[in-house]
Structures are given as structure tokens and as C-alpha cells.
Design a protein that fits this description.
3 copies of one chain form a homotrimer.
Chain A lengths: L9 H12 L6 E3 L6 H6 L6 H5 L4 H8 L22 H10 L8 H12 L12 H12 L6 H7 L2 E5 L9 H8 L6 E2 L5 H4 L6 H12 L6 H17 L4 E6 L9 H13 L4 H22 L2 E6 L1 E2 L4 H7 L7 E2 L4 H4 L1 H7 L7 E3 L7 H9 L5 E3 L9 H15 L17 H21 L5 H19 L7
Parallel strand pairs in A: 1-2, 2-3, 4-5, 5-8, 8-9
Antiparallel strand pairs in A: 6-7
Helix pairs in contact in A: 1-20, 11-12, 13-14, 18-19, 19-20, 20-21
Chain lengths: 468, 468, 468
């Protein structure tokens, strides 16, 4: 489908097609995502089509929930112990019956293109074709060439970053390192569960952090030491970035004694909501300082109200589609961090958002005015053909292309990785084609730019090229 | 004008035209609006063209006010008793002289298309053609085929919902029911004037509510009973939905004693601004519970600052063009209601907005994640070709098409009903044509979708198909 | 480049081209900007190409800073006394080496079009062409036809407003008036440095204001008198408008005694942050009253967080690229002013914004509903082809064209003036062409509209036509 996502103005479409073709042979750089490293460490065959493509995809299960189909019928595990559907074919048929709900959505696009480009299935999904498609995909999954490592290579992935907590022992990465496979799979340092006191079991996690790192985390100083040590371990396992998922973008540089006092109230179970917000904000300053020291690129993902759908959280746990975005203030929130380090060339902060209203008002002026800031790809609800287009239209004026950090797939769905990258490349090609046809950029510079966006920029900004 | 509102990319335009043609024979479903039911109950001839098309249209009179033409010169009644223009032809000429002010606006589009498709007038409106057009429309209005019921049938309206206060005795609907006309005209339960203590005469209205319903509204329990009884009466008069116009989207479930205490302070005239907001927020919870019991679909219209233009309100009263939108927080505001009933399949809440900044950030993720939520059509200042397009572009990613409740004309202007529906259908056709030309949706599914959006979805979601 | 910024749908593009051509001979109306009047009063040759086109352009220097190139290397004067680059050719080469950073940005468009249309340079800027282009521009700048007044005439500027503080003695304007040159250069009354207590040296400035105006500014009454007198002086020097750059859009009408008390706390150095905000808000009411008396059009530029980049401010001072927009509330902020004067035909307020999220939600409904309000052109970060387009798409529905005040270049870059106006005219032509091809506006009315937007409207709204 050569014109997928390209509009039909003939000249503009032709240029978009040519620009997109320039990215065809470029490897995939995947500096942020949520693939379980065990998949690649074990290299076992994937499960059935439903377990692979439906059950873990909260984009899919939330849409079905929104039309009254409970996640249990789709096989989403219940933490209440209630039985859920386990038959892959039954789940698949339920998806097929409700496939019309996904018209116009990115889930539909990703899945259809995955069927086509990964599994060679071009039959349209419908109730009456559900079984055939299920069988075809199941048959492919049984083949050795559809094992995870084979697909990794077929997809042209040059580097894939997974995301681990500081409590993770990184054995999967050690196993990958040890067994001689040439695929580059690195980790990312994501400390939210030992930073955000609103996580269930935060105090317990902090205690475990001390054990893992060999420091005394009953004191704030020992806690910071533990984090520094774990960062060093993560760097040894290939990490080039950290990641921070906070409700807001607030940063603050508390006096050390104040930060320590809040930490102690947290351990004592007496921290207030304000304490917790201040502690998260302060820790972003600490992590910025650590990044300046150890070189980890700092990713900031603010603005999700976690577990907004309480019933869903109670029934099925975190990360099952119940989070909702909220308005996010970067201009005042980040100011303390920027006052301290915004112009420091040693620091790289990649900002993401769920609030597109900040694209032109806040994010582009910030990234286009501070040396330390880069804009991450449109995130989650915005990682769509139209969201990606609106991002370029809104941020290029003030941030240009070279303050944007390239595409990240940010996915749990391994088989969707090439499709997602391809769509991002297509949207950028279409946007650049618009500049070319409007006389705002010559073709040769557009050609260089599309290749930078697809490959060179993310590799450089995420320090995957070995440079500091 | 076959290409009205279609862009000119040839292939995309042709597909849009084909998709739009599929809606040509579909009846109009009008589940929310402000037509006075007396118009249809009496079926008297309409007044002169200005009284029909200019005087009551606050889109028109506010634009002229913004250029210094006071509403009194356009015949808008003054509650101060000051004389206003009464000559239709004079008002019409004033409109024609200032017609250039409406270039690019939806008012221009609606009126021109109404002239053309309803009144067969294709002469462009200009100062020098004003009299001819006035005479032509006046002549049509004198014909029996331009009586309200004849137009209702000609317009292809399958069902039209009006909007009444719980204090309304519904005699117009009774008259319509009694006289055997086959047109389906139903009511909608809109309790704002007995809920919002900021309405002039709230306490008086509450007292009348008790009289109408036969309960003791000096007590909160009696007040709730009265509302329940009136809902039953409205349902008997065909109502399938309630409607709630609040300044914000706040909901809260107060302990019964607290709600009762605020209610009593309201009656005593001692309620604070915070009390009034909490009472509105609590009543949304009560109405959600009532909806679960009696099946009324719950429409929520938050975000208008009523009577922002104080002079206009003092001079000409409510609903004359002086309201202004404000930023609206759905994510936190609706959370208490969603915690309680968001996944309850018995509840249907249709959310509208004046704040398009919430389209992708809040509304689409909410509607795409909760079983009870649907998105209403772009409202008021956003009910325009560009507003409708931006709505689809921003919400389809996370909500798809089937969490949107179809078009509502929401109008006081009876003759504009077919034009408004037609424009919404055209915009959806153009959006779907874009998906088709971009390879994101096959034509046959786009064809099914346009018919669902235009007819089947609103009929189903507003429970106009007899299903619960 | 006839199709610059026009999209390539053939029919739409052709109509856009025709509409744009209608503006070719129209003079430029420049009612708001930051050209130093000394440039035209002295009419001395411009400096070298870098001093003219790079050093003072904070759009350019902030983008380079965002990629780690400090402003000192670009010749931006340091207030710390640190040496900065002074060699124009070195600065120019640095720009050329980093020219790729500006792909897709308005800076690139403005500079390239300036090279072409002002300096006849069509060689693409690259490291290897940097010297040639530098030499070519330098050679032009040495010619008499490239003196400021000659360019002013060549550009077709009918009137140019500069911006001065009430402390300015207006000698440059007096010199221009005295020497018989026919170019119309007027001033604008911008009192921020004597209104906003957060300006360095506010109390000192207020004392100087008293000296300049001959009143006693130790008292609030004398301060208001001084402002009135200076406005009269500015009007005598041609001013038709005032300009107010506030952090927020807050207005408030304080009792005179309260305003005076805050003023005195300000002089005593004891004003709080809340005092300062209230004082700014109150002064907008005072200025509205003065405008009703003396006829100055009131421009309001709210929403910039000044000196957000603290290092940049400490190092290089104000207006060097360190300001960042913030969310702005017009609906509640302006309400006191609108309650008092919003429908007063003697008042004209032109509203600007850095927060495009308010376009459809707040600004268009306000301007389309109050006689005193007009919408200024998209400002600063939004003064771009895409920003200008989104402005029309978002505000035309509720405000039409005739509540918008036309383009203002708002620039410090004299040579970019014709390019900026041309781009705004092109974007309006393209937007109108879309309305024509969609059947929403006949060509003849689009043709009248484009000329009104380009010339007649700003001339009228800013009272540059001699009418009150």
C-alpha cells in the first residue's frame, strides 16, 4: 500500500512517496519501549494470536470496554482471581465481531498492517474471516522464522531499549549479553516505583532497593547512593537513558534537609499528598544532577492520571487502559530545573506530552530556547497519523526538526514495532512534502531531513552512537 | 451545490461526494434542540422573514453587536421596555447592509443554504437585493406548504426533541399527541432552573416544582421525589433524555445530610458560591442514579459562562448571545461520577464541550475508556464545518466513531435544521474520504459508517429505537 | 516563487494565486512594531549583514542557543562585559554552518525571502556559499538605494508605527517630522516600564516620568496625570494606539484609594507580588478610560513569561529570546473591563495571544460578541504560515474577518517587513481560496475580503485613516 496515510494531492503525494522511500533501508532505532526482555532472552515461540495481539494491548481492550465488553472476556487477567476467557480463538472472534469499532483508529491501522507486513495476511478481518486469519497467524507463529530473535532481525532493529525498575536484577539482559546473539537490547532506568510514594508498597520497594544496591535506604543519603549505584549497573547493561513518569512536570530544588524530612515521613507513612508531589519534583532535580554526572539522557513523561478508571484498576490492575491525560504545565513546572541546568550542554532532557495544547504554546518555545531540552515523539493517545502530523505542524515553527528526538514506539506489542515506525516515517514524509510543494524547503534538504528524523537524530540524541 | 464544504483534491472529493450521497434519503434524527413545541402544536404560519430568521438568532445578532449595531435595531425584545425595531423589512435591510460581516461564518452558510434549499431563493443577499429576497421568502411563508408541520415532513424529520423545564406542563406535547398528526415530537427533561441556585428565582421555581409534582419541596427528599415524578411525566411525553447545562463538569457524591443542608441554605438564601457549585455537582450524581433507574440518557453541556456580556443581559435577557465559553476540566470533574457509574451499562452520558482543547486530551480518552460515556456533536461555537472536522480529527484516534453520538442541531431556528444536518453529513463524508484515500479504511466500511453516523447511531444512543 | 506557501490542489492553488495577486500593489500598513525610529531619522547606511540580519534577531539566536551555541558567539552584546564576537563574517559563517537547524521555521522563510526580494540574492545559503552571500549583501548595503528611507519607500510602507516608553522624549519623531521627508513614521504609547513594578528600576522610572511630564508622581493622581499628558504628547507625534504587555489578561477596577495605596507601597518598595498584579490589572482600566477620552486604540499583549531563561537574561538582558508563553485566561481576566466598557463604541481594544488554545474557545467568541474588541494578528511564536492559517481556521467561525485587525509585523527586523506582510497575505489568500472551492464564499467577495484584510481593515481599526 504505497500511499498509506498520504493525502491525494498528486504532486505532494508523489514527493511524499519519494521521501518515504528514502527511509526504506534505514534500521529501526527504538530508544524507548516496554518489550519484556525475557521474550528475546528466551526466544521461545510466541503464544496464540490472541495472547500475542489482543490480550496485552490496552488500546484494544479499552475500546472494547468503552462499548461494554469487559476485559475478562478478552482474556485480561483479573487480580481478583475471577476466571477470564482463556481460549484464544474465542477472544479473536470477539475482536472480529467488534472490529468495526476500530474504524479510523490507530489500533486498526497497526493491527491490519501487522497482519499484512509481518504475517502476510491480507484478508480483511470480519466475523466470517476470523477463524481463517487466526489459523494463518497461528501457523506462522509456529515457524522458526517467527521466533522473537528472527523477527527482531527481520524488522531491521538496530537497537531496542527495554524499561526496568531499579529493583530489577537485569538477568535477562545479562543472559542476552552472555549468549552471543548479535541483537542489541539495552535497558532503561525507570525509578518511578521507588520515587513516587503513591505506588503501592513504596516503602517496601525502597527497602528492597537498599538490599539490591547495598546501601542503607532508611536515610535519604543512602537512598540517593542506591539510585546512583543502580544507574551505574544499568549503564553497564547498556542503558543510555532514564525515564520518569510523573503526574505533573513539577520540579523543585528543595534544601537537602527538607527533602530528607519528606523522605522520612514517606517511610513513616505520614507523607501528605503535597509531600509526595514535592518529593517527586525534587527527585527530578536529583536525577538531572545524576544525569550530568553519568550521562544518562533523561526522559520525562508527565501528565497521566493513573488508574482513573477505578473499577478497571481494582479488577485488572495497572496499565490496562484506565489512565487518562490531564492538562500539564511545563512552563512553570520545569522552571527550577531549567534555571539550574537548562543551558548545560551535558544535560539532555527529552520531554513527552499527552496534552497537545502545549505543543505550540510551551513545548516548542522551550525546546527551541534551551540547550538541554528535546521534544519526544507524540505519546500514547497522540501516537497516531493525525497526532504525529499535528505535532510537526505545531512544533516546527519554534523548535525546528533538530530539537525533536525522533520516533519512539513506546510499545508492549513487539510485532507492531515496524508498522509504528513506518507510519511515523510516512507522516514526516507527508509533512516535508508539504513544505516542498509550498516552496518552503528544497527537495534535497527534505531528503536529508527525513533520514535524520528516521535514524540519525534519535541515535544521536539518545546517545546510542557512543558519543557523550 | 454538490461540492459544498468538500475540498478539491479530485479523488478525495469524488469519494466524499459518493459517501454524502448515501445519506440523501436518510431521515433526520434530532435528539436535542430548542424548537418551541408550540410552533408545531399550533401549526400557524411563521411570521415575517426577519422574525423567523434574524430576530431570534443570537449567532446573527451577536455578530452585529460586535460591530456596534445594538440588538434593539434588529428587533430583539428589550426587557427594559425600551422600544425596539418591529418592522421586518427594516431589520432585513440592516442585515443585508452588513452581510459582508458574516463571510466565512456558519451563520452565512446556514442562512444562504436555507434560502436556497428551503425557500428556493438563489439570489445573493446584498443591499440591493434585500427587498426582493424578503418578498420572495415572505411569499413562500404565506403558502400552506410552508406551515411548520408541512416543513417538518418535507425536511424528513423522523423525530424531534424539544427541551422543557420540569415546571413545564407539557400541554404542547399533549396537544400534539392528541390531534393525531403523525410527526414525532418529544420532550427533554432540562432541570437547570430548579437545580442551579444562580438562576433568578430559584427558590420560587423550586416551590412551583413542588406544586406541579405534588410533593413537599421544602425538604430535600421531597425535592428529589418531585424531580423523579416529573421525569416520569416527561417519559410519558416521549422523553428519552435529560439535559444539564452547568458552568463546569464537576460531579460529587455528597453525604445525603450535607446535600440537604446546602439545599436548605439555598432556600434560606444563604448559600455561598461554593455551596451552589457543590449542589450542582451533587445533583449530577442524583440524576445519574435516576437515569440508571428510569433510562433517560443524560446529556451534559458544561463550560458556558452565562451572561458574560452584562449589558446585553441587563438589556435583553438570557440567551441573546452574551455567553462565552471557558476552559473545562472533565478528567477530574467527572471522576466521582465515573468512579460510581462509569462502567455501568445501564447509564448513558453524552458529553458536549465548548472547549476543543479537551477533544484529544480528555474527551476522546474518556469516551474510549468508559462504557457509560459518549461524545456529543461539537457544540455551539464549534458547530461549524471546521469545528466538526477538527472534532473528527481529534477524537477518532481514541474514541473511534462508535463512541460519538451523532449530530445534534441544537437549534432554535427551525428552518435551518436540514441545512445543519446536511453540513455535518458532508464534513463526515469528507473526513471518511480522507481515510479512504489514505488507505486507512476501505470504501465499503466508510459507506456503512457515514450512514451510522447520520442516522443509526444517534437513534440508538439516544434510545429513540425503543431499546433500553 | 508564485506558489510560496500555497498547497498544491490545483484549483485551490490557482484561486489563491489570483487572490494574492490582488494585494500586490497595496501599500503596507504597519501599526505595531519595534523598529528603532533613529534608523529612519538618521538614514545612515545599515551595518554589516550579520549586524543587520543576525545579531538583533532573537528568533535566530534562540534557535542556535537551543543547540548549544551561546549568543556571544553570534555577537549578542553581554551585559556582563564579557567579550562577544564582533566580526560579521565569522557570525555569518556560523549561521551558514547551522542553517539546517532552521528548516521548516519562519526564520528561514523570512531570511531566504529577504535575501531574494530585498537583496536579489538567490544562491542557497550553505557553508560553502556563506562568504559570497555575505559579500553580495554587504555590497548592496553600501548602495544609496539600500539606505533605510529608500527601502521604506521601496517596500511601499504607507505608515510605520514604532513603540516608545512614556520616558522617551520623541526627538527621533520630531526630527523625522522636521526634516520634510514624506514617510509616515508614528509612535505608539507603551507604558509597561512605568506600570509594571517588576521592571528593574520602576520607582526610578516613575520619578523620571514625573520630570518629563511635569507632574508630581509621588502621588497616584499625579502619576495618572503624567500618563495623560504623555499620551497627549504621543498623539501629537502621530500615535493612534497604546500597547500593553502584561503577564496575564487580568483587569480590575479598584477603588481609587486602594489603587493609590498599592502605588505608594510600590514606591516604598513594599508591594507584594499580588499588589503588582492588581496594579497592572487596575491600570488597564485606567488606560481604557484614557482611551475613551483621547481615542488611542488599546493593544493588549498578554501571556509572556518574561526572562524565563534566567542565564540568558543575566548574561544578555531582556528581549534576547528567553521569554516563554503561558496559558492565558481572557474570559475571566477581561470581564471587569468588558463589564464597564465592552460595548462602548468609543473604545477599541486589540487582543493578541501566544496561547492558540484560546482562539476558538475565548478570543473569537469575545471579539464576535463585544463591540470594543478586535483580534490582533497571531503573535510572535504564532506569526508563521501555519500559525496564521490556524488562526483563520479557528476564529473565523465566531469572529468573522471584520473583527480581526489585520496583520502586524511586530518586528525589530526592518528588512523583513515586506516578506512578513507578503506571507500573511498569502496565507489569507489560501484560506479564502479554500472557502471559494468549498462553495462557502463567492470569488468576488473573497477578492474584496483579501484587500480589506491586507489594507483597509488595519488602517481603519488602528485609526490610521483619520476617523475616530
Amino acid at each position: 500500500m504505497p500511499d498509506l496515510t498520504f493525502a491525494s494531492g498528486d504532486r505532494e503525494r508523489d514527493i511524499a512517496r519519494d521521501l518515504h522511500a528514502l527511509t526504506a533501508e534505514l534500521p529501526l532505532i527504538c530508544p524507548h519501549g516496554h518489550i519484556d526482555p525475557r521474550i528475546l532472552a528466551d526466544d521461545a515461540p510466541f503464544g496464540d494470536p490472541a495472547q500475542l495481539l489482543v490480550v496485552p494491548d490496552h488500546y484494544v481492550t479499552r475500546m472494547l470496554l468503552s462499548q461494554g465488553i469487559p476485559p475478562g472476556r478478552l482474556g485480561v487477567p483479573a487480580r481478583t482471581g475471577e476466571p477470564v476467557e482463556t481460549d484464544g480463538r474465542t477472544i479473536w472472534r470477539l475482536l472480529a465481531e467488534n472490529w468495526y469499532l476500530f474504524r479510523g483508529t490507530p489500533s486498526r491501522l497497526w493491527l491490519e498492517r501487522t497482519f499484512d507486513t509481518v504475517f502476510d495476511v491480507r484478508t480483511p478481518l470480519r466475523p466470517e474471516t476470523a477463524d481463517d486469519i487466526y489459523d494463518a497467524i497461528a501457523a506462522r507463529l509456529a515457524e522458526p522464522s517467527f521466533r522473537p530473535r528472527a523477527l527482531f532481525e527481520k524488522f531491521g532493529i538496530e537497537v531496542l531499549a527495554t524499561t526496568e525498575s531499579p529493583l530489577d536484577d537485569l538477568t535477562q539482559h545479562a543472559k542476552l549479553e552472555a549468549d552471543g546473539w548479535k541483537g542489541r537490547v539495552i535497558t532503561t532506568f525507570r525509578p518511578d516505583n521507588v520515587v513516587d510514594m503513591e505506588f503501592d508498597g513504596w516503602a517496601h520497594a525502597v527497602a528492597r532497593l537498599g538490599e539490591v544496591a547495598g546501601t542503607d535506604t532508611t536515610r535519604f543519603g543512602g537512598y540517593l547512593d542506591a539510585l546512583r549505584r543502580r544507574r551505574a549497573d544499568f549503564i553497564a547493561a547498556g542503558a543510555t537513558s532514564s525515564d520518569h513518569g510523573h503526574p505533573t512536570a513539577l520540579t523543585i530544588d528543595l534544601p537537602a534537609a527538607d527533602a530528607a524530612a519528606i523522605y522520612e515521613r514517606g517511610l513513616a507513612g505520614t507523607a501528605s499528598a503535597a509531600d509526595r508531589e514535592l518529593f517527586r519534583a525534587h527527585m527530578l532535580m536529583e536525577f538531572a544532577r545524576m544525569s550530568i554526572d553519568d550521562g544518562l539522557v533523561m526522559q520525562l513523561h508527565p501528565g497521566a492520571v493513573r488508574n482513573h478508571n477505578r473499577w478497571l484498576h481494582d479488577m485488572h490492575g495497572r496499565d490496562t487502559g484506565g489512565d487518562i491525560p490531564q492538562a500539564t504545565d511545563y512552563v512553570h513546572g520545569l522552571r527550577p530545573l531549567l534555571d539550574a541546568y537548562g543551558n548545560d550542554p551535558r544535560l539532555r532532557v527529552v520531554l513527552y506530552t499527552l496534552d497537545e495544547d502545549t505543543f505550540s504554546r510551551e513545548l516548542a518555545p522551550l525546546a527551541g530556547g534551551y540547550a538541554a531540552l528535546y521534544l519526544g515523539a507524540p505519546w500514547w493517545f497522540l501516537d497516531t497519523p493525525d497526532g504525529l502530523r499535528r505535532f510537526r505542524e505545531a512544533v516546527t515553527d519554534s523548535a525546528g526538526f533538530y530539537n525533536t528526538a525522533g520516533f519512539v514506539d513506546d510499545t508492549r506489542a513487539f510485532c507492531s514495532i515496524p508498522v509504528r515506525h513506518d507510519i511515523a516515517r510516512r507522516v514526516d514524509a507527508a509533512y516535508l512534502a508539504g513544505l516542498v510543494t509550498q516552496g518552503r524547503l528544497p527537495y534535497d534538504e527534505a531528503a536529508e531531513t527525513i533520514q535524520d528524523l528516521a535514524y540519525h537524530l534519535p541515535k544521536h540524541i539518545f546517545r546510542l552512537d557512543g558519543e557523550k
